[in-house]
Amino acid sequence: MSQNHGSKGFIVVSNRLPVVLEEQNGTLSVKSGSGGLISALSPALRDRGGSWIGWLGTSETVRIKHIKSLLGPISSQSGYRLLPIFMTHQEVKLFYQGFCNEIVWPLFHDLQSRCRFDPTYWDTYLKVNQKFAKVTVKHSDRWNLIWVNDYHLIPLGKMLRDKRPNCAFFLHIPFPPPDIFMKLPWRQQVMEQLLSYRLTAFQTDRDADNFLRCFKELNPRSRVMTRKGGGRGFKLSHQWETVVGAFPISIDFRYFEGLAKSPAVRKKADQIRRAHQGRRIMLGIDRLDYTKGILERFRAFELLLQRDPSLLGKVTLVQLLVPSREDVTSYRNLREEIDREAGRIIGRFATLDWIPITYMYQSVGQEDLAALYRAAHVGLVTSLKDGMNLVSKEYCACHPDNDGVLILSEFAGSAVELGAGAITVNPYDMEGMANAMQKALFMPDEERKRRMSLMRRRIKGWDVFRWMDSFLNTAAGLTLSSLPKRELPPIIRRPRAPLDGGRGASGSV
C-alpha cells in the first residue's frame, strides 16, 4: 500500500470503542473506557483522521440518532471517528462472556481448567464478527489499512480478505504454546483466520515463537522463512503470505512523566504520603481479573508481615482494583474472594492507628492515578500471565526522580524489557515474592535509582509512538508522520434513509 493511499487514515477495529455508554438516573451518557489498548492507541491516533470501530459496551436498545448525538462531539474532540457496533443481550452473553471470556481468555493465559468449550459460543463468535466486517467494509475502502485488535476479532481478517485485503492483526494477550493451544476445538479454524492477515503481530518473541510452533504442528509441510530487511520477523509460506513478528506495546512516556511532574500531581502525591504518616507504600493497580495474581500478592504480603514483625505499622499495601466484567459470574466471585482475603489480613494485623491493606474498588482519573504511582515507594505487578502490562511502564514513567522500585512478574510481557531494572518474581512463589518485597523496601538509594533510571530510559526510547511506527511500517510501509494531524471532516456517503428512522439500534450502522 502506498503512502498516498495510507494518508486517507487507517481504520482501528477492536471489541470496545475507547468510550462506553452508561445509564444513570434514566439518562444516557458516554464515559472514557479503560484498558491497555485504549491507553496505547488513543494518544497516537489523536487528530489523525480515520475511524475506530467497536462495541459501546451495552446491549440496551438505543435510538441511533441519540447515539450519533453522543459520539459526534467526542469524535470531533479526538480527531478520529467513532463507529459503534451493536449487540443483542444474547450475543453479549455468548460472544463476549462466552467465547471470549470463557474460552480464549483463560486458554491463552495458561488457565485451561477455567475454559468452557460450548459449541454455541463459536457460532455466535463468527456471527458477531460478521457484524464487525459489515461496518468495516461500509466505512473503508480497499486502500485503507485495517488494524484489527485482539482475540475478540480473530476471524475478521478472513471475512474481509477479498474486499479489504490490507488487514493487520495485533494480539494484546499472550499466545499459548502448542500443548495448550491444541486443546481448542476450533484450533484449525483459528489458525487459518490468523493466517488471513498481511501481518499477524504479538507482544513478545515468546508469543511469536509459540504461534510459529503451533503453525508448524498444524501445517507440517509449510515453510517458515526469515524476513529480509532487518528486525526479527518471519514469513509463513502458505496460500496467503503472512508476516509474523513481535511488537511490544508501550505508553506515552512524555505524557505520564509530565503529569507526574505537574504541581497538581505532586501535591496529591505528597498528600497521599502524609495520609500514610511516613510509612512505606507498596502499590498494586489492577483491573479485576484472575490473571493479575492479586490473591497471591496479598498472601505474599501477609507472609512478609508474619516473618518480619519489625515491619508492622511501617508499611502499607495500597491496592486499587478497577471494576471489570462485573456481569460475569466468575469475576463477581473473584471480587468477593479478594474482599474476604483483604479483610482477613487486615483483621489479623491491624492496630488502632494502622491498617496493613488499603483496598479500593473503583476507577480513578489520570491525575489521581499518577499521584498514586508517584507516592508509592514500591510498585507491584505480580500477574500470573500478561501480554504486556502497561501499569509497570506507567509506574516507572511517573517516577522522574528515579525513587521507586518495581516488583515485576516474570510472566508479564514487560519483563522482557524491564527485567534488568525490576525485581522479577515468580507469582506462584509466595516466599520468593515476600523476599522481593523485603528487598524492595530496604534497597539502598544508589541501587534503587540505578534500576529505575535503566527502566525509564528503556520505556522512553520505545514509547507508544515508536511502537506504532514499527507496526505501521511493517504492515503497510507507513509511519505516524505519514498520517498528518488534521481536522475531522464530516462523513460524506451516498444518500440513504435518515439514520434514526424511528428504529432502535440492534444491528450495525
Automatic annotation (TrEMBL):
Is ATP-binding among the key words of this record? no
How would you classify this enzyme at the top EC level? transferase
Q: Name one GO cellular component term.
A: cytosol
| SUPFAM superfamilies, alphabetized | UDP-Glycosyltransferase/glycogen phosphorylase
Pfam families per the UniProt record, alphabetical: Glyco_transf_20
One example of the protein's molecular function in GO is: alpha,alpha-trehalose-phosphate synthase (UDP-forming) activity
Mind telling me what this protein is named? Glucosylglycerol-phosphate synthase
Reaction catalyzed = ADP-alpha-D-glucose + sn-glycerol 3-phosphate = 2-O-(alpha-D-glucopyranosyl)-sn-glycerol 3-phosphate + ADP + H(+)
* EC nos: 2.4.1.213
